[in-house]
Specification:
The complex is a heterodimer of chains A (390) and B (292). With 390 residues, chain A is of the alpha+beta class. Chain A contains 20 helices and 15 strands. Chain A starts with a helix and ends with a helix. Chain B contains 13 helices and no strands. In chain B, helix 4 (63-95) packs parallel to helix 8 (153-181), helix 4 packs across helix 12 (247-257) and helix 8 (153-181) crosses helix 10 (198-226). Classes of the chains: A alpha+beta (390), B mainly alpha (292).
Chain lengths: 390, 292
Amino acid sequence: MGREGEVVAELLPEFERRHPDIHVKVQQLPWTAAHEKLLTAFAGDTTPDLCQLGNTWIPELVALNALEPLDRYAAASSIVDPGDYFAGIWDTNRIDGKLYGVPWYVDTRLLFYRRDLLSRAGFSAPPRSWQDWKRMLAAVSNTARRDQHGILLPLNEFEPLLALALQQDEPLLRENGRWGNFGGAGFRRALGLYLEMFQRGWAPPLGTATISNVWNEFGRGRYAFYVSGPWNIGEFQRRLPPDAQDSWMTAPLPGPDGPGASIAGGSSLVVFRASRHQAAAWRLIEFLSQPAVQRRFHALTGDLPPRRTTWTDPELARDIYSRAFRDQLERVKPAPKVPEWERIATEMRLVAERAVHGQLSIDQATQELDARAARILEKRRWLLARRGGG
Amino acid sequence: MRRAAAAWCFVAPALLVIAVFFFVPVVAALALSFTDFDIYALADSRNLRVVGLRNYAELLRTPLFWQAFGNTLYFVVVGVPVSIAVSFTAALLLHSRLVRFQAFFRTALFAPVVTTLVAVAVIWRYLFNPHYGWLNYALGRLGVSPIDWLGDPHWAMPAIIVLAVWKNFGYNMIILLAGLQSIPEQLYEAARIDGASVWRQFRHVTLPVLAPILAMVNILTIAGYFQLFAEPYVMTQGGPLQSTVSVLYFMYEEGFKWWNLGSASAVAFVLFLFIFCVTALQLRLARWQSAA
């Protein structure tokens, strides 16, 4: 899918050389059409043998009973070593105790920040806790011009709020995903910080569509912090002039007290239940999971590898912008693993957007979210009740 | 009798195609709208529940549906008159003997209709840009302070209307132009001999002859504008604050983003019923007008 679909074609000749009996056909899909295509493929009984899957889609395809559990393959494998993978990422592939995918690359959100703007405000290091973060935002905003802001939290993305919410001890859904838990103290704290950043004028109430070029605006110092993902390392290196490269850096996401968690995102490799070449598909997963192949994959795409061994590569270790990601990956948590989650996350973004615009108070917002989640999860409750289990 | 049989044979292929590709899907969608078909039901048909009218009842209780309905109505009520007025003005200009290079202008004004919306949207997003956009630049010259066209919930729908009118007016323009060209020259001649001014010629010759065509253009445009989808889909994804979510966009998200095909079908039928009623009302109005 997307860029990975193009790049994997460059890795495959090596695989076919090592396994002359296996021939791989790659079908590339744009991300925007992938979800629909997979569901129609399932309905039409034409699923592939192996596929790259965004790890938030795994619960949905497991609900469809479309994926083959991989536990027995993984147990017998000398290459795929669960302990070498970042725990949070590995966990996104386990549903009800079974393994359905092997992480291919990881994606998480953390802080991109302007070192020069922070040091002008009197700070030599990025924030570690929410307290530090708020102090810095207040200080940066004090010295800012009128069109400058402390932080960019694009209103069309749910990830920044989700990351703050995952830092809390309480889960986002309760009773095995039957109900939302947005009224709980944890989510209220996360939403409270999120809204405070807008109410104090630290964050502008904008989406990325209205900013038109987030990289330029970051380069111009329109905001000192930006919560975003690994692909932006490459974008900033490419788009900002050489003399500006010293002025920005990445840092792990601050937590309520000390370094906090973030989202365990990314893509996994999965094998379909209907496939008649499951063993061969597993060989390809093993090939793509080798640290050496993952290093080449990283060099070609910039995607971050999911295994600790791959990160010991000197090239990766030298990349100063990736270091914060390496650190953050030890503290990533999966979003709730129910098929309805993506829709609930979208509602979370929409309700938060209304709260940012002052249409809802924090109490109203959390009540509204619990009500929407309850409606969305109605079918799940019915299915669980009928199955009569946990 | 034999003639009737022969006639049926001739229309049978067309009827068959219509039945298979039109009536069967419509009936299936109607049936679907009484169930809660979703991905769980796709996995296992035992997960399908027949819910009767619950999808419809739920829908009428969903605030976003009403918001989408209001947005669509806003788009139709403002967009249709503006669109027809622009089409009509353009058609009159093209028909006027004062304008030269008519063929060129006809093609140029029709061009937006046949260009891809996705490509056009890229250009328009730049035109609408609050900092660098030409639109705000032009307004700034007139002393209007910059408007955040696509980012401000109050301005996003007007921006969509501007785009949609620009994109679609050429189509009606051609229909109206054909109507204008079919008006016999003698009628104008007779009116001139009677001493009618240009305005009175327009009022008493052009408009009455064009009335049935205008009525048809009106009905088609209203039915088309109720199905607003592509413009918000490519420009705003329904934002900001869901101020550009249309009924069809709502249906698309419900059906193809979240795979609740049951409730998405219900949305489709509610929209169908509404467009049907509006069109019936218009037809009645048109008939009543021509009878009067």
